[in-house]
Write a structure and sequence with these properties.
Elements (H helix, E strand, L loop, with lengths): L4 H5 L8 E4 L10 E5 L12 E5 L8 H13 L4 E6 L9 H10 L3 E5 L4 H31 L5 H10 L8 E9 L1 H6 L3 H23 L9 E3 L2 E7 L4 H20 L3 E10 L5 H18 L5 E3 L6 H6 L3 H12 L12 H11 L4 H8 L3 H15 L6 H16 L9
Helix pairs in contact: 2-3, 4-9, 7-8, 11-15, 12-13, 13-14
Protein name: PucR family transcriptional regulator ligand-binding domain-containing protein
InterPro entries: CdaR-like_regulators, CdaR_GGDEF, Homeodomain-like_sf, PucR_C-HTH_dom, PucR_C-HTH_sf, PucR_dom
Organism: Symbiopectobacterium purcellii
Amino acid sequence: MNLTVGDILALPGLEALRLRAGQRHCHRPVRWYYVAENEGIADWVMGGELVFVTGINHTRDEANLLRLLQEGHQNGIAGMVILTGEAFIHAIPDSVVAQADALGIPLIEQPYMLKMVIVTQLVGTALVQRDSLLRSQREILTQLLTGDYPSIELTRQRASHLQLTLNRPHRVITLRLSGIPALFDNAPPDRAEAQLQAARQALRQALEERLATLPASLPLVTLGELFILFWPEVDAAFLDGKAWLGEMRQSLSPSLQPLSLFCGLSCTVTQAHHYRRGLGEARRALEVAESMRPDKGICDFSALGVLQLLTAIPDQELLNRFMKETLGPLFATNRKHPALLIDTLEAILQENGNVIKAAERLGIHRNTLNQRLQRIERQSDHRVNDPQWRLNVSVALLIWRMSHAQQQEFL
């Protein structure tokens, strides 16, 4: 995994560094380090930096240090290191320590006697080494996900050498930000791009922070617009992971707007050469989450039932044609509510043919429901209680919901 604040504190040669606040957040991944030479840092950090504050070029009084923490929090820094000694910043004020704790920012004190050149060299070297390892690990995982590897035995050998733990059950989880076309349609390109990259960085940081808390976790992988996690399925770890995904999606929602986050989960993957299947399942579950369950935002492929079969059919036109042939006669383009009869039929199926409960579900009188059922049978040329037609309708309704077809014309 990425080098964390805690990893940096444990580097040989940096024993003089002292953690003053934010101990619970030392698992934050460090993307790089930044030495603050300006009065503020908001324009100079992108998220994930370990910020060093020296006080050499600017007066670093209590107010300025508090401001730096606030700007760092808003921009997602990994942590802050404040150099203390006789020359510039004599001591870290208690208010700064308290604010770092309140904001969840690891705050580290570095004595001036520990030379900055030594610290940055050790940190920079460790970051480069870890980045090189991560690139190789992600290369192996990408090969397994795409099926593009020379041989499974060689891939396993490389994975073992690169400290990748593949011999335990995992779920493949795909995450994607939705609404990107609308973002660029409604904002100037430069502002839309900035919003997109800020959202992606916020998501990446949240995912990597969580992965850093898992023992022997596999690194985050990106394929195009997809973020891909490998979540261990041992004991209650996966149930905790599903709960965390929902909580993360909710907590990130304000910072991601106008984009939305959707997640798809595969069935359990127990062998390295099955990761490709896991990715396919997770992607199909992601499509269902986005099209059929936007309020929840998360879909588990193992819970899809017959949708597992429908999402595996590559010929989308075949599915659409079946849906149109089955439901098309009930769709009225010239009416205020063109899908009225389809919604009525769906209510009948959901209530197992119980007319009273279906009428209650729709909020209409039973006589009104009976009139609609007569129209359905007349226009479809099928009896509602015909078991074969009910099966066809059930499948067609799933395709309709899955493909956003309710937003399109049938014919």
